[in-house]
Amino acid sequence: xxxxxxxxxxxxxxxxxxxxxxxxxxxxxxxxxxxxxxxxxxxxxxxxxxxxxxxxxxxxxxxxxxxxxxxxxxxxxxxxxxxxxxxxxxxxxxxxxxxxxxxxxxxxxxxxxxxxxxxxxxxxxxxxxxxxxxxxxxxxxxxxxxxxxxxxxxxxxxxxxxxxxxxxxxxxxxxxxxxxxxxxxxxxxxxxxxxxxxxxxxxxxxxxxxxxxxxxxxxxxxxxxxxxxxxxxxxxxxxxxxxxxxxxxxxxxxxxxxxxxxxxxxxxxxxxxxxxxxxxxxxxxxxxxxxxxxxxxxxxxxxxxxxxxxxxxxxxx
Length: 317
Hints:
alpha/beta, Rossmann fold, 2 domains, 12 strands
Protein backbone atom coordinates (compact mmCIF):
# COMPACT_ATOMS: atom_id res chain seq x y z
CA UNK A 1 0.00 0.00 0.00
CA UNK A 2 1.51 3.30 -1.10
CA UNK A 3 1.54 5.34 2.10
CA UNK A 4 2.48 8.88 3.07
CA UNK A 5 2.45 10.69 6.40
CA UNK A 6 1.48 14.36 6.48
CA UNK A 7 2.74 16.55 9.34
CA UNK A 8 4.13 19.98 10.16
CA UNK A 9 7.72 18.82 9.56
CA UNK A 10 9.30 20.48 6.55
CA UNK A 11 11.05 17.65 4.69
CA UNK A 12 9.74 15.72 1.70
CA UNK A 13 10.44 12.07 0.92
CA UNK A 14 11.90 9.04 2.68
CA UNK A 15 13.73 8.66 6.00
CA UNK A 16 16.97 6.62 6.00
CA UNK A 17 17.38 3.75 8.45
CA UNK A 18 20.56 5.42 9.73
CA UNK A 19 18.67 8.53 10.86
CA UNK A 20 20.06 9.34 14.33
CA UNK A 21 16.90 10.97 15.71
CA UNK A 22 14.78 7.87 15.08
CA UNK A 23 11.67 8.91 17.01
CA UNK A 24 8.56 6.80 16.59
CA UNK A 25 7.15 8.71 13.63
CA UNK A 26 10.44 8.32 11.73
CA UNK A 27 10.46 4.61 12.61
CA UNK A 28 6.97 4.32 11.08
CA UNK A 29 8.16 6.04 7.92
CA UNK A 30 11.07 3.61 7.61
CA UNK A 31 9.21 0.39 8.39
CA UNK A 32 6.38 1.24 5.98
CA UNK A 33 8.69 2.67 3.30
CA UNK A 34 6.38 5.68 3.52
CA UNK A 35 6.90 9.17 2.21
CA UNK A 36 6.60 12.26 4.32
CA UNK A 37 4.75 15.28 2.93
CA UNK A 38 4.60 18.64 4.75
CA UNK A 39 1.01 19.75 5.35
CA UNK A 40 1.80 23.12 3.81
CA UNK A 41 3.29 21.51 0.71
CA UNK A 42 0.47 19.15 -0.30
CA UNK A 43 0.47 18.96 -4.12
CA UNK A 44 -2.31 21.00 -5.70
CA UNK A 45 -3.01 18.50 -8.48
CA UNK A 46 -6.10 16.28 -8.51
CA UNK A 47 -4.38 12.94 -9.01
CA UNK A 48 -4.24 9.93 -6.71
CA UNK A 49 -0.63 9.43 -5.64
CA UNK A 50 -1.08 7.42 -2.43
CA UNK A 51 -3.39 4.62 -1.37
CA UNK A 52 -3.32 5.96 2.19
CA UNK A 53 -2.44 9.34 3.63
CA UNK A 54 -1.91 9.53 7.39
CA UNK A 55 -2.43 12.93 8.99
CA UNK A 56 -0.59 13.92 12.16
CA UNK A 57 -2.32 17.14 13.22
CA UNK A 58 0.18 19.54 14.83
CA UNK A 59 -0.34 20.25 18.52
CA UNK A 60 -0.02 23.97 17.78
CA UNK A 61 -2.83 24.39 15.27
CA UNK A 62 -2.76 28.20 14.99
CA UNK A 63 -0.79 28.18 11.75
CA UNK A 64 -3.12 25.67 10.10
CA UNK A 65 -6.56 27.03 11.01
CA UNK A 66 -7.10 28.48 7.55
CA UNK A 67 -6.66 25.06 5.94
CA UNK A 68 -9.00 22.15 5.32
CA UNK A 69 -6.14 19.68 5.50
CA UNK A 70 -8.19 16.53 4.98
CA UNK A 71 -9.87 17.87 1.83
CA UNK A 72 -6.45 18.74 0.42
CA UNK A 73 -5.16 15.25 1.21
CA UNK A 74 -8.16 13.58 -0.43
CA UNK A 75 -7.15 15.07 -3.76
CA UNK A 76 -4.06 12.85 -3.81
CA UNK A 77 -4.96 9.97 -1.43
CA UNK A 78 -7.54 7.20 -1.92
CA UNK A 79 -8.13 7.10 1.83
CA UNK A 80 -7.15 9.47 4.62
CA UNK A 81 -6.39 8.47 8.20
CA UNK A 82 -5.94 10.52 11.36
CA UNK A 83 -3.00 9.45 13.55
CA UNK A 84 -3.26 10.16 17.28
CA UNK A 85 -0.60 12.56 18.54
CA UNK A 86 -0.53 13.01 22.31
CA UNK A 87 -3.45 12.18 24.62
CA UNK A 88 -6.77 11.42 22.95
CA UNK A 89 -8.29 14.39 24.80
CA UNK A 90 -5.65 16.86 23.63
CA UNK A 91 -7.94 18.69 21.21
CA UNK A 92 -10.24 19.57 24.12
CA UNK A 93 -7.42 21.47 25.84
CA UNK A 94 -7.32 24.01 22.99
CA UNK A 95 -9.35 27.24 22.78
CA UNK A 96 -12.87 26.36 21.66
CA UNK A 97 -12.55 27.52 18.04
CA UNK A 98 -9.33 25.52 17.66
CA UNK A 99 -10.87 22.51 19.37
CA UNK A 100 -13.83 22.55 16.97
CA UNK A 101 -11.51 22.89 13.94
CA UNK A 102 -9.46 19.94 15.22
CA UNK A 103 -12.59 17.84 15.74
CA UNK A 104 -13.86 18.69 12.26
CA UNK A 105 -10.59 17.49 10.74
CA UNK A 106 -10.84 14.22 12.64
CA UNK A 107 -14.48 13.81 11.63
CA UNK A 108 -13.53 14.22 7.95
CA UNK A 109 -11.11 11.28 7.71
CA UNK A 110 -11.92 7.73 6.61
CA UNK A 111 -9.82 5.88 9.19
CA UNK A 112 -8.28 6.45 12.62
CA UNK A 113 -4.99 5.13 14.03
CA UNK A 114 -4.60 5.08 17.82
CA UNK A 115 -1.69 4.35 20.15
CA UNK A 116 -3.36 2.12 22.74
CA UNK A 117 -6.35 -0.18 23.17
CA UNK A 118 -8.07 2.32 25.45
CA UNK A 119 -7.52 5.12 22.91
CA UNK A 120 -9.02 2.92 20.19
CA UNK A 121 -12.22 2.65 22.23
CA UNK A 122 -12.28 6.40 22.72
CA UNK A 123 -11.96 7.25 19.03
CA UNK A 124 -14.43 4.57 17.98
CA UNK A 125 -16.99 6.18 20.27
CA UNK A 126 -16.09 9.76 19.39
CA UNK A 127 -15.70 9.53 15.61
CA UNK A 128 -17.49 6.27 14.72
CA UNK A 129 -14.77 5.48 12.20
CA UNK A 130 -12.83 2.23 11.58
CA UNK A 131 -10.01 2.45 14.12
CA UNK A 132 -6.76 0.50 14.27
CA UNK A 133 -3.72 0.39 16.53
CA UNK A 134 -0.54 1.75 14.96
CA UNK A 135 2.01 0.35 17.44
CA UNK A 136 4.88 2.39 18.83
CA UNK A 137 8.09 1.34 17.10
CA UNK A 138 11.86 1.47 17.34
CA UNK A 139 14.26 1.00 14.42
CA UNK A 140 17.23 -0.60 16.13
CA UNK A 141 19.93 -0.25 13.47
CA UNK A 142 21.76 2.66 15.13
CA UNK A 143 21.68 0.97 18.56
CA UNK A 144 23.88 -2.02 17.75
CA UNK A 145 26.94 -0.34 19.26
CA UNK A 146 25.24 0.29 22.62
CA UNK A 147 26.67 -2.18 25.13
CA UNK A 148 25.40 -2.93 28.62
CA UNK A 149 27.23 -0.99 31.32
CA UNK A 150 27.17 -1.04 35.09
CA UNK A 151 23.85 0.59 35.84
CA UNK A 152 22.82 2.81 38.73
CA UNK A 153 20.26 5.45 39.54
CA UNK A 154 16.63 5.87 38.59
CA UNK A 155 15.20 7.82 35.68
CA UNK A 156 11.69 9.25 35.77
CA UNK A 157 9.87 9.65 32.47
CA UNK A 158 9.04 13.33 32.50
CA UNK A 159 9.03 16.51 34.51
CA UNK A 160 7.14 17.63 37.62
CA UNK A 161 4.05 18.80 35.76
CA UNK A 162 0.63 17.23 35.34
CA UNK A 163 1.18 16.36 31.68
CA UNK A 164 3.87 13.82 32.62
CA UNK A 165 2.70 12.93 36.14
CA UNK A 166 6.27 13.62 37.16
CA UNK A 167 5.53 14.35 40.80
CA UNK A 168 3.97 10.90 41.17
CA UNK A 169 6.96 9.30 39.46
CA UNK A 170 9.32 11.25 41.71
CA UNK A 171 7.57 10.15 44.92
CA UNK A 172 7.71 6.50 43.86
CA UNK A 173 11.33 6.83 42.69
CA UNK A 174 12.31 7.94 46.20
CA UNK A 175 11.50 4.41 47.40
CA UNK A 176 14.35 3.04 45.29
CA UNK A 177 17.00 4.91 47.28
CA UNK A 178 19.04 5.93 44.24
CA UNK A 179 19.91 9.24 42.66
CA UNK A 180 16.99 10.44 40.55
CA UNK A 181 17.34 11.88 37.04
CA UNK A 182 14.84 13.30 34.58
CA UNK A 183 14.90 14.45 30.95
CA UNK A 184 14.13 18.07 30.18
CA UNK A 185 10.85 18.05 28.25
CA UNK A 186 8.99 20.83 26.47
CA UNK A 187 6.43 21.43 29.21
CA UNK A 188 8.99 21.59 32.00
CA UNK A 189 8.65 24.41 34.53
CA UNK A 190 12.12 25.97 34.61
CA UNK A 191 11.81 26.27 38.39
CA UNK A 192 12.29 22.51 38.48
CA UNK A 193 15.98 23.06 37.81
CA UNK A 194 16.18 24.31 41.40
CA UNK A 195 15.10 20.90 42.76
CA UNK A 196 18.44 19.60 43.99
CA UNK A 197 17.22 16.00 44.36
CA UNK A 198 16.80 15.65 40.58
CA UNK A 199 19.60 15.54 38.03
CA UNK A 200 18.24 17.08 34.84
CA UNK A 201 19.57 15.63 31.62
CA UNK A 202 20.11 18.02 28.71
CA UNK A 203 17.83 17.70 25.69
CA UNK A 204 19.00 14.73 23.66
CA UNK A 205 18.09 13.41 20.24
CA UNK A 206 16.91 9.81 20.20
CA UNK A 207 20.25 8.03 19.76
CA UNK A 208 21.90 10.11 22.49
CA UNK A 209 18.88 9.53 24.72
CA UNK A 210 19.15 5.75 24.32
CA UNK A 211 22.86 5.81 25.20
CA UNK A 212 22.09 7.87 28.31
CA UNK A 213 19.08 5.76 29.30
CA UNK A 214 21.28 2.65 29.13
CA UNK A 215 23.13 3.86 32.25
CA UNK A 216 20.10 3.63 34.59
CA UNK A 217 19.09 0.68 36.77
CA UNK A 218 15.45 1.63 37.39
CA UNK A 219 12.74 3.66 35.69
CA UNK A 220 9.40 5.11 36.79
CA UNK A 221 6.91 6.66 34.39
CA UNK A 222 3.52 7.24 35.97
CA UNK A 223 2.22 9.38 33.14
CA UNK A 224 -1.56 9.69 33.61
CA UNK A 225 -2.04 9.95 29.84
CA UNK A 226 -2.09 7.09 27.37
CA UNK A 227 0.17 8.20 24.54
CA UNK A 228 2.84 6.58 22.38
CA UNK A 229 4.67 5.09 25.36
CA UNK A 230 8.15 5.36 23.90
CA UNK A 231 9.74 5.69 27.36
CA UNK A 232 8.50 2.27 28.49
CA UNK A 233 9.39 0.75 25.12
CA UNK A 234 12.94 2.14 25.24
CA UNK A 235 13.34 0.73 28.76
CA UNK A 236 12.05 -2.68 27.66
CA UNK A 237 14.52 -2.86 24.79
CA UNK A 238 17.36 -2.19 27.23
CA UNK A 239 15.94 -4.40 30.00
CA UNK A 240 15.50 -1.56 32.51
CA UNK A 241 12.54 -2.35 34.82
CA UNK A 242 9.94 0.43 34.51
CA UNK A 243 6.94 1.06 36.76
CA UNK A 244 4.15 2.69 34.78
CA UNK A 245 0.57 3.13 33.61
CA UNK A 246 -1.17 -0.18 32.83
CA UNK A 247 -3.28 1.45 30.09
CA UNK A 248 -0.27 2.24 27.90
CA UNK A 249 0.23 -0.74 25.58
CA UNK A 250 4.02 -0.54 25.65
CA UNK A 251 3.99 -0.60 29.46
CA UNK A 252 1.35 -3.30 29.94
CA UNK A 253 2.74 -5.66 27.30
CA UNK A 254 6.44 -5.27 28.18
CA UNK A 255 6.17 -4.84 31.97
CA UNK A 256 3.04 -6.73 33.08
CA UNK A 257 4.53 -7.18 36.58
CA UNK A 258 5.20 -3.45 37.01
CA UNK A 259 2.02 -1.93 35.55
CA UNK A 260 -0.41 -0.12 37.83
CA UNK A 261 -3.68 1.73 37.53
CA UNK A 262 -3.52 5.51 37.32
CA UNK A 263 -3.23 7.02 40.84
CA UNK A 264 -2.41 3.68 42.50
CA UNK A 265 0.71 4.94 44.24
CA UNK A 266 0.37 2.32 46.98
CA UNK A 267 1.00 -0.52 44.54
CA UNK A 268 3.63 1.49 42.66
CA UNK A 269 5.62 2.07 45.86
CA UNK A 270 5.37 -1.60 46.84
CA UNK A 271 6.74 -2.59 43.44
CA UNK A 272 9.60 -0.12 43.82
CA UNK A 273 10.54 -1.64 47.18
CA UNK A 274 10.35 -5.15 45.70
CA UNK A 275 12.60 -4.18 42.79
CA UNK A 276 15.10 -2.71 45.21
CA UNK A 277 15.19 -5.63 47.65
CA UNK A 278 14.50 -8.71 45.50
CA UNK A 279 17.31 -9.33 43.02
CA UNK A 280 15.57 -12.35 41.52
CA UNK A 281 12.44 -10.28 40.84
CA UNK A 282 14.54 -7.52 39.28
CA UNK A 283 16.33 -9.97 36.99
CA UNK A 284 13.09 -11.70 36.01
CA UNK A 285 11.40 -8.41 35.07
CA UNK A 286 14.46 -7.23 33.13
CA UNK A 287 14.83 -10.40 31.04
CA UNK A 288 11.08 -10.75 30.54
CA UNK A 289 10.83 -7.18 29.25
CA UNK A 290 13.46 -7.78 26.57
CA UNK A 291 11.67 -10.92 25.44
CA UNK A 292 8.25 -9.25 25.42
CA UNK A 293 9.65 -6.29 23.53
CA UNK A 294 10.71 -8.63 20.72
CA UNK A 295 7.40 -10.51 20.83
CA UNK A 296 5.16 -7.45 20.67
CA UNK A 297 7.16 -4.51 19.31
CA UNK A 298 9.93 -5.71 17.00
CA UNK A 299 9.98 -4.26 13.50
CA UNK A 300 8.99 -7.68 12.12
CA UNK A 301 5.93 -7.77 14.39
CA UNK A 302 5.07 -4.18 13.48
CA UNK A 303 5.09 -4.93 9.76
CA UNK A 304 2.86 -7.98 10.32
CA UNK A 305 0.40 -5.89 12.33
CA UNK A 306 0.29 -3.10 9.77
CA UNK A 307 -0.05 -5.56 6.87
CA UNK A 308 -3.16 -6.90 8.62
CA UNK A 309 -4.44 -3.36 9.16
CA UNK A 310 -3.79 -2.42 5.53
CA UNK A 311 -5.52 -5.56 4.29
CA UNK A 312 -8.63 -4.62 6.25
CA UNK A 313 -8.42 -1.00 5.12
CA UNK A 314 -8.20 -2.04 1.47
CA UNK A 315 -11.60 -3.74 1.84
CA UNK A 316 -13.33 -0.62 3.17
CA UNK A 317 -15.68 1.15 0.80
